[in-house]
Amino acid sequence: MTDVRPTDQDASPGGEATLGEAFNKMRVIRQACLDKCEVMSCGTYDFPEPLHRVDWVLLIGVAVVFGAMAFLGYLV
Amino acid sequence: MSDNLTAAEYADREARFGVVPILGKERIYSLLDMIFVAGSYAIATWCYFQGAALAYQMSMPQGLMSTFGVCLSFIVLICLIGVMSNKYGIDHWLLSRAVWGEVGTYVVLVTVIFSTWGWGAINAQMFGESFVKLLGSAGADVSSGWWVKGLGALCIALGFLVALRGAEAVKWATRIMGYLLVAIGLLVVVLMLTGGDLGAAWSQGPLVEVEPGQERSAYMLGTEWNVAFILAWFPVIGALTRLAKGQRVAHWGLWVGYGFMMAAYIYIGVAVAHVSAAGGAEITGDPTAYLLELGGPWLGSLTLVLVGVANVSTTAVGLYGTSISTKILWPAWRYEYVVGFWAAIVGVLTVWGGVWEYYNTYLAIMGIVNGPAVGLLLVDYWIVRRRRLSLRSIFERGAYHYTGGVNIVAMVSFALGVAAFLLVYDPINYVVKAESIFNALTVTGFATLVSMVAYFLLSLIPPVRRYLLRDREADTAAVC
Fold first, then answer.
1. Which chain A residues touch B72 with a CB distance below 8 Å?
2. CA A31, CA B458: separation in Å to the nearest integer?
């Protein structure tokens, strides 16, 4: 992976560079994105609870019933 | 906002006002918030405008079946996009890099968002129309067309001020406005039940005389408008659901707020037009005129005020979501400037007035662009990639660079979808060219299906599959 972390040129000596100073905004954003991706990719991150089976059944079932209803309107 | 931020604070700010992923503990929308945010965005007065357009094509019973039928079946596509974004806390336009490639995403994003923002102009115009009618009924001289445009600009300015404060302000604004929107709906229903002849309205046909033998085609044209309508707001879905506290919250929030409530409000629009027409109102297609006719000077005026105020929250949600998505083009752009840019674009469209005038053509353009775009996003993630992406490749050049930044397979599939649309329907002259397909699937449904099937079939060819799934070879550990 390309090292895109802020360098000495991007931050003041205390690492407290401000927007008025010379830190590269794009670089900071990209590094923050990659850091969070790292958190999600390490295998221990708890992704939000996925849809349950009942959610899927309701979602698809209701869609089929109402799709049929739209077709019924065509036949009326 | 102060510029005196450290790099860490700036990165944190960009999670809320930009493209940085939002992890689980940072999310702020509960189920109720999600319903209100999605609902406030989806059920603005453009639903009444859509309802008034549908009333030309179909009777009240047909309107019920078409509106609820389409909204509660096509909402599946929207929910699946919302769930994708929520899983990673990332706007779906960033996830789209896996489908379109880096450069391809920019092209599609700009095309889709620019075309979608015509809705903002409809919304602002409705705000202007409401208050002009109100002022007119109070005796003011508001005959100049600039009154509507000027008041429309006021709606945009107020929405802009809320959107500037970000997701938290949007949450609170929609909480308040959400109740207001419910109140408007109930008030309109009461007006219809007490002031109109619901029985006569229920039994009359479409408001415009349909030639004998063309009743089903007229119904399907209205149904096509509904399909294009429900897909019209997919561009901001990811920016909203990434803030929800879980995939189920994102899913059910969208289903109730975007699917069910939108259907209910479109149908109220259909019913208002029919009841007003049954009562002898002039058939103008302008829902604000129908409301005034139905409610009389006092209740009608109150409804118009509520309608106008509620449009502000809709504009705020739209500006917030669109601005977050737009920052993908250049993440370091300042959020406030991006919001200002989009507010200005909506202002220009409102002053122009063309979206209002060419509404049916506008809806067709929505269908051409959004249907295939939604379909490809879903088939790529849920079927071809089996719900696994290389997150790192989303943020730096890698597996999703494809050919010069463009996924050729997705572009070909998209082009096939657009071609399928144009073969079946002429959006400029409103001419159906292949009636059997149009009547069976609607033209947007057909174009979406063609793109999805084309992409899926192409992905089964081994070299194409390797081209699409480079993320599996490059970075297996980071694919999740």
1. 62-63, 66
2. 35
